[in-house]
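pasting for the record
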Amino acid sequence: MSEIVYLRMKKKVETTYLKKVNLKDIAYISTTSPLKKELEKTPIYRMTKKDRNVVIVDSFLVIDHLNTHYHNLEFQLVGPTHTMIRIQKYKKSPNVFMAAIVWLLLFIGAAMTIVNFHYDVSMQEVQQKLHYLLTGEQNQYPLWIQIPYSFGLGIGMLLFFNHWFRKRINEEPSPLEVEIFNYQQDMDQYLTHYENPLDDDERFD
């Protein structure tokens, strides 16, 4: 009777350029077979110069490859059906000058957006009328309303984005993180669909 080997493909892994990928690099293995260590070291994929930034390894090709080497084992897939390998050829050191320019542009853009929004809704006139309703006096610059409002605007943005620099205020993701996650999911789905040639097995050992 064949021993069962359960494979669970990893969703994403990162590797260096032109590196040989073993089974343990792209999948979790669960089995009572004494061949587990050997299985983990089984070469699955070899990076070549044709590979760019992303390689999709489909579980069908992995199991088909393993079946040719281990006839006495039965492989069963659990979970994801593929692994996305992101190739990092080199890492660039952070450019402080470029980061400062981007930060400055974002700061100016956000400030202009807030200013234009307040101008469009006539926020100053609203605060002047609110001051008149509460005090019965006319005041062009009701600072006792404007100053707390300015602080509240900044604090509200911190609470909305759920971050203070690198520190998270609570465990909930911010709306920006959710949008980035959804974008990454759509990107991964696109790459999985268009970068998954099942008939290209020439680089399998």
